[in-house]
Amino acid sequence: MARVPDRETCLELLGRMCLIRRFEEEAGRQYQRAKAGGFLHLAIGEEATIVGTTSVMREDDYLIGTYRTHGHALARGTPADAVMAELFGKETGTSGGRGGSMHIFDAKRRFMGGYGIVGGNLPLAAGLALASQYREEDTVTVCMFGDGASNTGNFGETMNLAALWKLPVVFLVENNLYGMGTSIERHSAVTDLSHKAEGYGIEGERIDGMDVLEVRDRVSVHLEEVRSKGRPSLVEAFTYRYRGHSAADPEVYRDKAEVEEWRQKDPIENFVKVCLEDAVLGEEDIEAAKQQADKTVEAAVQFADNSPDPALESLYEELYVVSETMGWYAVDERSPEPHPGELGEEAPAAARDLAESVADRESEIEPQNRPGVRD
Ligand SMILES: Cc1ncc(C[n+]2csc(CCOP(=O)(O)OP(=O)(O)O)c2C)c(N)n1
Ligand SMILES: [Mg+2]
Question: At residue 102, does pLDDT exceed 70?
């Protein structure tokens, strides 16, 4: 078992994991109250994989994840206020309320999102690492993705180019044993995912993703090897999500006994046990960490609640724009060159009407009837 670090580090690890746990529980509650819209994927149970990894990354390393990344942003240091406000669709959110739960983003802290397309973040990670290599920086990109994503074409294509171009990426599979309702035995021919990139020349290692200290130890070795040798590696962290795939998952594909078995490996409770046994922390430290997490999350809900909605006039702002043009931009095939964007008022009337009618209607639709609650 990994050695217990100093008191300050233990408090930091515990604090981050408690914050994620509390934040996620509250996000689930706010979703039920229809305060948070769109989709909601919680990472309760996966805290050790997230915090163990981010705790050994450098500030200038890049992190990119999936649609289950509230915790990744919090672990990177993004204020809980801004993450909750993003869930609420508010102007003060990490993406100005445009992204919602699946698109948390914090470029300042090099947390590069938040992506809804399964496996879509893999080639983007390769691009980030290519940028580091091109600029001759020794920054590493950590790309976290699910077991299900390892079946996508993007996985193979990215592994090939990352190995060929010796890109500084740690690919970290958060193997929680399911892709939505499909178990790994039913979705992947190779179930030991640490071997899955070997054919592309990338070595992998399987680790216990429920043990924050093991994750720290092993990921730090991978980070330093990738940094110094300039080639990618793969880590498969075994973990488990205690909640359903998303907020609207009846969980008919797994039985309660299995969930209970994994609950015995609760990453927070087990870390607490290790810290108490080692006497590096006392009961009062544990209580204080939990209370602090409660306070931070309570304040985040208040902040999000009191924040303004984005103004209707800002509907066309912060959309995909090429060059310095403000406003609307549609990718089209008129010619291969990028076209200058069109300001909102110059957008085709049909497109503008559609966007505005969707914005108007959204507030009138009962939460359970909003598009997307099934995913
Ligand atoms: C390209 C693509 N196909 C399908 C989906 C629908 N979908 C959303 S999440 C998901 C499961 C992915 O599972 P995994 O990669 O294991 O991540 P986890 O949800 O377990 O964290 C699927 C199929 C999608 N978002 N993108
Ligand atoms: Mg999965």
Answer: yes
Cα(40) to centroid(ligand 1), Å: 13
* Sheet arrangement for strand 62-64: 62-64, 141-146, 169-175, 233-238, 204-208
Residues bordering ligand 2, an ion, CB closer than 5 Å: 146-147, 176, 179
pLDDT tens for 223-264 read 999 999 999 999 999 999 999 999 888 899 999 999 999 999
Report yes or no: 217 and 276 within 8 Å, Cβ to Cβ. Answer: no
Q: CA 147 to CA 237: how far, in whole Å? A: 10
Predicted confidence (pLDDT) per residue in 262-271, tens digit: 999 999 999 9
User: Which atom of ligand 1 lies closest to the CA of 241?
Assistant: 20
With a threshold of 0.70, does the pTM exceed it?
A: yes
Task: State whether the beta carbon of 245 lies less than 6 angstroms from ligand 1.
Answer: yes
Decide if pLDDT at 218 tops 50: yes
Give the tokens for residue 152. Answer: 């996508």
Greater confidence (111 vs 361) lies with: 111
Q: 249 and 176 in contact (C-beta within 8 Å)?
A: no
Overall fold of domain 7-306:
Rossmann fold (3.40.50)
pLDDT of 111: 98
Proximal ligand: closest to the CA of 177: 2
Q: Which is nearest to 254 in space by CA: 245, 264, 246?
A: 245
> Distance between CA 147 and CA 369 in Å, rounded?
30
Ligand closest to CA 179: 1
The CATH 3.40.50.970 domain(s) of the chain lie at: 7-306
Burial (CB < 10 A; 0-12, 13-18, 19+), residue 45, is buried
What is the distance of C-alpha 172 from the center of its chain? 12
Give yes or no for residue 147 CB within 6 A of ligand 1: yes
